[in-house]
Amino acid sequence: MTDALPAALLPGDLATSTLVLLLLAALAAGWIDAVVGGGGLLQLPALLLVPGLSPVEALATNKLSSVFGTTTSAVTYARRVHPDLRTALPMAAVALVSSAAGASVAALLPAAVFKPVIVVALIGIGAFTLLRPALGEETALRYSGRRHHGTAVGIGAAIGFYDGILGPGTGSFLVFAMVSLLGYDFLNASAKAKIVNVATNLGALLVFVPAGAVLWGLGLLMGAANVLGGYLGSRTATARGSRFIRIAFLVVVSALILRVGADVWTENVRPLFD
């Protein structure tokens, strides 16, 4: 780990403008995560602006901040939507273990390997959702019994591992998988996704905390802003329903395509022309 910053980084160690940017990013990320996922699109790049912060420290501190927001939104959804915990909890348990496995190799595998695949997947998800206007308007479960729960657990394992190793768009991937593969409407999918996302954040922290990668002072402060954003976002989503979440989903997926696509261009394509 870098020793340019103390592990208990405090607000006073940062320029005021940087701290304000981080708090605003955490607030907005909490709102986006609560509605449809993808808050890391804002929060993680903002953390990488902190001088001397390594990518692993940024990822770890992002997980600490996010776990507060996702927990808040999960509780709010649980009170207002009452998601089926028989599906959500097994998904969350498997996702926690899978996320810890992903986090354990996060520093070993370069993100550049995954980013082109992520861009292609996001484009496919966005196009599929856009071309099927009725997708996710109401719950019509594809399967029942063991097949339903087996598919749910498989989703939790795959996306949990992805969240531990990289992370951008995890909530959006969870929502889409539960809408397209399991047949939930967007509102119920978002409610379950928050429960699973809490588990993936905790799973990654089980690896990052013992490794000393978390900046506690900054992470807790951003976590407070994330809580407010998560509360406001989950109330907005439950009040506006699946149609609103579908539109927000398409906006966030488009933004993710642009953000990750820009990284792919900078890291893989542009050097070929230099």
TrEMBL record:
Subcellular location, principal: membrane
Annotated InterPro entries: TM_pro_TauE-like (IPR002781), TSUP (IPR052017)
The keyword Lyase is assigned to this record: no
GO cellular component assignments: plasma membrane
Hydrolase keyword on record: no
Entry superkingdom: Bacteria
Compartments it resides in: Cell membrane
Membrane topology: Multi-pass membrane protein
Transmembrane segments: 20-42, 88-107, 113-131, 152-182, 202-232, 244-262
Record keywords, A-Z: Cell membrane, Membrane, Transmembrane, Transmembrane helix, Transport
PANTHER family recorded: MEMBRANE TRANSPORTER PROTEIN YFCA-RELATED (PTHR30269:SF0), TRANSMEMBRANE PROTEIN YFCA (PTHR30269)
Family note: Belongs to the 4-toluene sulfonate uptake permease (TSUP) (TC 2.A.102) family.
Record's protein name: Probable membrane transporter protein
Organism listed in the record: Trujillonella endophytica
